Amino acid sequence: MNKKKKLGIFLAVTLVLILIVIGVLFWWQNEEDKKKQIADIKSHYSETVVLLEDANLYTKENDKYQEVCKISKDMVLHLKSQNIESTNDTYFAIEETPYYLYYKNVQGCDTQESPKSPYLVFNENIITKANAILLQDDQEKIILPEGASLKIMEKGDENYTILFQNQMFKISKESVQETQEVINTEEEELTNIPVLHYDLIDAENLKRQLTELQELGYTSISWSDLLRWQQGVIRFNNKKVLLLFNTLDKERKSILEEANAQGVTISETGKINWVHKNERMPKDGTNAFTYKMSANTTKEELKSILDGTVEPIAEESILATQVPVLNYHFFYNGEEGNFCRETICLDNRKFEQHLQYLKDNGFTTLTMEEYRAWMYDETNLPQKSVLITVDDGAMGTSAINGNILIPALEKYDLKATLFLITAWWDLANYQSENLDVESHGYDIHVSATCDGTSKAKALCLSKDELVTDLNKSIEILGTKKAFCYPFYAYNNTVISATQESGFALGFAGGGYKSTRQSNKYAIPRYPIYDSITLEQFIRMVN
Is the pLDDT of residue 33 over 90? Predict the structure, then answer.
């Protein structure tokens, strides 16, 4: 074989080898690129992902992905389990939906437990129109195509609340094509509810009974949710109760909050005519029945109530038909040797004795708004209700003149209303969550002479002069729920000026209980004198 032929063979073999090496290298590089792409795809996948940007949702037809709708940045979604083995696995299937996401639009995030809804899903789904918008916090989150089927959680007047990916969204009824009956749950629906009424319960027994409720599988609902349930807006399972209280102080509110429980007071339920009956309240609200609870109610008794096996009792109203209004003036610290010679002064020890009695016996001390609403037949109150009023703003009522009233109210967490002479005392000195401040006039709490007689100045002024004074006090206080007549003195002119100034109520003296039939501009009060005994006080409030 000549040299030329040998060289040709050598070059040919060499070329083939080079081509083989290049082919192998190309194949190897391609495989490495595939591995990197698959690794990249896998790095975006997780059981729970978050949208990195506004993105499209896709459906899959004939192995092709078609854009059908949109979804917003930062949405958290749950994906179907998926084995990523090919560079073609670039779309992730969204759990419980026919939709897919492109992998580069998402990244994995920590699995987030969607908050469990307190409501029972309806056995009904909505079917969307094209471009149906799902909202959260009034922000557009998802735009769905026609025909999407979504579970209904709430039926509002203009919107549905639906479930998508176990998250709740609102959708306008205008975006709904129709609703369809389906079986979303076979859980038993609530058709009547046990209302547990607490006249008086101490903190420890309230904690115990809340724990026992949870152990028996029951949760409490809010008053607003009860109304929505009655209206058919939401559904509940049959393990719900309503906790009804005469009053809720800060300690008991805190106990409810710690137990993740809800409670409502009688005054917050408006015009519901609650009665003890030891029967459930029907959904239609025709009978506002309650169960009579106490601090001594055992777990076994509680179970009987919830099971509906407790014996009914004769109907017994739990609502107030009259309310005592107490009228204090001045306070002094007898323990420190202070004294006051006026009969309307009260030793702080007696005042605290009164507050302690009200606290220990489950009285509801009213805000002025609660009392006003009751007088105007807008709400009901529990039987043991009392309105505490304090006149003037003088000795012992603020930090600058003795500091007895507000610390005592805050100590027992009770409410009162101060009628302040606004020209004499600065409103800033009477600030407390436990104290309302209403008008005792601007500068008419003095005597004057008219018709040859010394009398309360208010009786000597014209209606226009009175209105001018009262408006000055209103401007300072920012409220006109109630006016208290200086020296309990009033006549038709004073009442007319009170009404023209916009006051809803006028308070006087009298020494007997108020009722809804009382003249709203001559509400009677019990003046509290230094000689009062605890027995006399108890008779006033009971």
Answer: no
Pairwise CA distance, residues 497 & 480, whole Å: 13
CA distance 133 to 128: 9
pLDDT at position 112: 63
- On the question of pLDDT at 356 being above 90, the answer is yes
* Residue among 362, 216, 223, 229 nearest 293 (CA): 362
pLDDT value, residue 2: 67
With contact defined as beta carbons under 8 Å apart, do 390 and 411 qualify? no
- Using CA atoms, how far apart are residues 364 and 464, in angstroms rounded to an integer? 38
| 22: amino acid identity, one letter | I
Q: CB atoms < 10 A from the CB of 236, how many?
A: 21
| Token output for 203 | 């903190």
Are the C-beta atoms of 503 and 482 separated by less than 8 Å? yes
Which pLDDT tens digit goes with each residue over 109-153? 887 666 678 899 999 999 999 999 999 999 999 999 999 999 999
Torsion of CA 441, 327, 438, 393, to 10 degrees: 70
**Rounded Cα distance, 421 and 326, in Å:** 18
Q: Tokens 């922000």, residue?
A: 139
pTM for this model (two decimals) = 0.87
Compute, in degrees rounded to 10, the torsion defined by CA atoms 272, 273, 276, 282: -60
CB 326 within 8 A of CB 390: no
Q: How far apart are CA 288 and CA 279, in angstroms?
A: 9
**Six-digit token pair at 458?**
């208010």
Which residues, 6+ apart, have CB-to-CB distance to 385 below 8 Å? 246, 320, 323, 363, 364, 365, 366, 374
Question: In sequence order, which residues have a C-beta less than 8 Å from that of residue 305 and are 6 or more positions away?
Answer: 194, 196, 278, 291, 297
Give the Cα separation of 408 and 403 in Å (integer). 9
Q: Which of 348, 336, 393, 394 shows the shortest CA–CA distance to 530? A: 348
Measured in whole angstroms, the distance separating CA 24 from the mean position of its chain's CA atoms is 70
What pLDDT is attached to residue 336? 87
pLDDT value, residue 115: 64
Count CB atoms within 10 A of the CB of residue 95: 15
Q: Which residues pair with 127 in a beta bridge?
A: 149, 178
Distance between first and last Cα of the chain = 133
